[in-house]
Amino acid sequence: MSNIVDSLYNIRLLDDLARKKTFIHIIHPLIKLLTTIVYVAVLVSFERHEVSALLPFVFYPVFILSFAEIPVVPILKRVLLIEPLIIGIGILNPLFDNYSVVFGDIVVSRGWLTFLSIFIKCSLAVTVSILLVATTGMDKLALALRMLKIPRILVLQLLLTYRYIWLLIEEALRMMQAYSLRAPGRKGVKINDLGSFLGQMLLRAFDRAQRIYQTMSLRGFTGEYNAGDISKIRFRDFVYFAAWSLFFIIARIYNIAVLIGALLTGVGR
Amino acid sequence: MSHHKLEARSLYFSYPDGHEAVKNVSFTIYHGESVGLIGANGAGKSTLLMLLVGILFPSRGEVLVGDVRLTKKTLPAIRQRLGFVFQNPDDQLFMTTVYDDVAFGPRNYGLDEDEVKIRVEKALEMVGIPHLKDRAPFKLSGGEKRVAAIASVLSMQPDILIMDEPTSALDPKSRRRVITLLKNFKHTKIIASHDLDMVFETCRRVIVLNEGEIAADGMAEEILFNKELLESCGLEIPLSLQNCPVCGAFKYKSI
Amino acid sequence: MHMADALISPAVGGTMLAATAGIAAYSAKKVQNDMDESKIPLMGVMGAFVFAAQMINFSIPGTGSSGHLGGGMLLAILLGPYAGFLTMASILLIQALFFGDGGLLAYGCNVFNLGFYTCFVAYPLIYKKLVRKGVNPRSIFVGSMVSSMVGLQLGAFSVVVQTLLSGKTELPFGQFLLLMQPIHLAIGVIEGLATAAIVTFIWRARPEILERVAFGKSLGGVPIKKVLTGLVVAVVIVGGLLSWFASTNPDGLEWSIERVAGTAELETPDGIHKIFSEIQSKTAFLPDYGFKTDQDDVQNLPAVEDEEAWPSVDAGTSVSGIVGGAMTLVLAAFMGWIINISKKKRGKAVV
């Protein structure tokens, strides 16, 4: 049941964070979405064994975390929850590839490098996705999606899903609590009860959908959804996008970490 | 102002399973009236309300709004004039912000965004929650949700407000707030409820439904004091009108 | 089962995003043209339902473990393929954004793996065929079970192919396949059990819900050939384009960056290098740490044949990488710290 509470808390937290008004928050949602996509695309374009060149990409999430006043711990916790999945796949790399690479005096298996590379990429990609939502919010992201010409109906449906997740998860939690009080020591719902357990929930969801449709049609909904004006992209939004994109591309071409290292160790050519 | 009149003419309605929920219901509600619709669980209140707004269509009889008959054809025009507040605000508030929810109706009627903004702000002002406009509906308290749901209907500037249990599941303070709001609205109102004290405060006229039929239709102070009538319909005299439970003293003189 | 950003290449991610966008656009058109508008809130609430249902763990008979519903097959059965696919797409988007399951670039892969095979392959070709002769608990059970398993097997296979095409792991194709398919066979059985249990319940309690989907004139038939043809064409075009980019060593994005930046290789060009060596003679805190000479002998290790992509790792660069990497992280942390401090100060000044 703790995972239910955890999910509720997570959605609520991100939604709360998105209502802040820092300078990151007021950047146009489409710009933030595109910047994030460019970031992820550049990040994953690195070779599978690349490690040091990935590190400058830490700047972007740190920048957002700091300026948008996002608490670090809950975001990191969320990212760590994802890691076991990626470790599961990544950890096989050292098993299948033990070709050695020499680092000065240290000899490491190349598989570990690949693993590390995947691990870093994953952590960064997950962090920026969560930060995107934490600084933008689902309603504003929907706006960005509409500007990308996603059909309005799909956007409306996405918003509805988001809106009712909260309600239905709470309902699931209440049912689960009632169930576990009468079935102590059980790990989950018995498979024989699953049909009626989730089925009841589903039927209520159907009824709810019907009532929602009624309230919508009473307010003039006929299948076409008008979502209001789209806010304009301002000059400073362009600058934000251009500056970060430039940084990502430079960091892709030049290994900034190695350059800094060279400055400090004096290793030249 | 005869065009604000709402009339039901011998309405009948049966559900597909054969259950006859509404039987021979007729009444006329005039401009500015506030009418309480009371009855036990399953008396047909909600069904009747749905017939009035055209979510359901009667198997016999007709509904007239102004002098227009409610049909599938006239529905869009008529719905603009009827504001229906559902019992569960979670069904009514389905967008991600309160603002978008209140703007949903006006936008669907094709108003331009400036006009939508004016309407939304006015509606939020009327129910006293302008500060909640950017909040997510799912994070509001029960009372806030309720008034936000009312605002989502007010923004359409309806002539007639129809409400299903506007005070159910509210704490005393929120309930009081909703009652005060309702009393201040100048709209024609139809309020279906079990909260007879609230009905007594907000409505001058009361219609009692019993097993799908009208059991009584008259002034609130007459009906809500009528013990036999109320009890035969599965109701009881509002608490505020009952004698003092401790000393048995009369609170009001029976009329 | 979720594909992660870290495991795919931009080319694979881009191709799958394009394919998914194509199917989604087609489905949206279908849904808008053929369905009544009351389906839109239904899709929304069903999406939320699947989300909530995934939170409910159930115990798997005969084992000590528990599982949960995935929902792809259930959505197809209850909403029909088009609306089901779109609903799956919004569930996955919210999962990617709020929970980091999958990612933005891998989004296309995930919608395809979890939505396409269930809604457009397993549902029309297996579930509908098996249930056509008569809806009863037996046919629902067999239909849900087989279609869930097939859907997940295809999805898992798809994950393997996408991962290997991306080339971000060292896993050999065979081993990866041997790992993924059996795991997803088990997951498929669980999914089938759960789907069958729910659909059977709905069929008993409110059969009209299933009938509406099964016999509704607009939702019944999937022109599977049309969808598949369109898809194949889209994948070939997009995939072809992207792999053309990608074929230029080492990969597509870099190729385009070269074009934009006008530099040919990843090595430090002279201009910058000169400036750097000047600065570096002044700043280096480990100036005598002599890796400069090591460069040539490090590569004497036997090279593996298939390793054209493996760059020459030289100790100098490696140490620079480690030191510089650490410095980068310290810098990043420092930046965050400074911003926080200055923000707090400003906050106090305002208060």
Automatic annotation (TrEMBL), chain B:
<dbReference type="InterPro" id="IPR015856">
    <property type="entry name" value="ABC_transpr_CbiO/EcfA_su"/>
</dbReference>
<keyword id="KW-0813">Transport</keyword>
<dbReference type="GO" id="GO:0042626">
    <property type="term" value="F:ATPase-coupled transmembrane transporter activity"/>
</dbReference>
<dbReference type="GO" id="GO:0043190">
    <property type="term" value="C:ATP-binding cassette (ABC) transporter complex"/>
</dbReference>
<keyword id="KW-1003">Cell membrane</keyword>
<dbReference type="InterPro" id="IPR050095">
    <property type="entry name" value="ECF_ABC_transporter_ATP-bd"/>
</dbReference>
<dbReference type="GO" id="GO:0005524">
    <property type="term" value="F:ATP binding"/>
</dbReference>
<keyword id="KW-1278">Translocase</keyword>
<keyword id="KW-0472">Membrane</keyword>
<comment type="similarity">
    <text>Belongs to the ABC transporter superfamily.</text>
</comment>
<feature type="domain" description="ABC transporter">
    <location>
        <begin position="6"/>
        <end position="236"/>
    </location>
</feature>
<dbReference type="Pfam" id="PF00005">
    <property type="entry name" value="ABC_tran"/>
</dbReference>
<protein>
    <submittedName>
        <fullName>Cobalt/nickel transport system ATP-binding protein</fullName>
    </submittedName>
</protein>
<dbReference type="GO" id="GO:0016887">
    <property type="term" value="F:ATP hydrolysis activity"/>
</dbReference>
<keyword id="KW-0067">ATP-binding</keyword>
<dbReference type="InterPro" id="IPR017871">
    <property type="entry name" value="ABC_transporter-like_CS"/>
</dbReference>
<dbReference type="InterPro" id="IPR003593">
    <property type="entry name" value="AAA+_ATPase"/>
</dbReference>
<keyword id="KW-0547">Nucleotide-binding</keyword>
<dbReference type="InterPro" id="IPR027417">
    <property type="entry name" value="P-loop_NTPase"/>
</dbReference>
<dbReference type="InterPro" id="IPR003439">
    <property type="entry name" value="ABC_transporter-like_ATP-bd"/>
</dbReference>
